[in-house]
Amino acid sequence: MIRLRPFKPQDAVIISRFIGDDERAHMMFSAGRYEYPLKADEIISRHYGFEKENDAFMMTALDESGRVSGHFLYRLLDFERNSVHLGFIIIAPEKRGKGYGKEMITQALRYAHDTMGMERVTLGVFENNEAAYRCYLSCGFRVKNHVKDCFEFKDEKWGLYEMEYTFNEEDKK
Length: 173
What we know:
By secondary structure, the protein is α+β, with helices and mostly antiparallel strands. It has helices spanning about 10-15, 25-30, 40-50, 100-115, 130-140, and strands spanning about 5, 55-60, 70-80, 85-90, 120-125, 140-155, 155-165. About 30% of the residues lie in helices and about 35% in strands. The protein has one domain: Gcn5-related N-acetyltransferase (GNAT) (Aminopeptidase, 3-Layer(aba) Sandwich). Strands 1-2-3-4-5-7-6 form a seven-stranded mixed β-sheet, sandwiched between helices.
């Protein structure tokens, strides 16, 4: 079981260990927006930066024992269009492939709709991040656009799927 709560600075030490020394995984997570290797101080710094804004905030996912097991960001909150974007999505390595990612995203969708009143949630995922892509599809996201070769990592070019989840009438009951 996954529970969500607002990010706390002490979560950053644990989250910063989720990638380890895998630079490629780091780039899939951050698209180069965090320095490699991922450091707790940088996560905390971004958290405080987001606290000053009105359109972004971090969340932490806790497992059934209350341990930090995932992390993501709500950003680009648009209260006129009732839309929000999910970013910097990551699950603890030991939780991957066990349904925790799907449960965290499902909870994120529920929170976006039920608590924030959002009707649309978007995210982007690199085309070579197949596990995440399949997870988002299984949660009900649909591909809205494919941007070919938009990110370079070493000698590779990665495309990006821009995905969207929209709530239907059943979700509004």
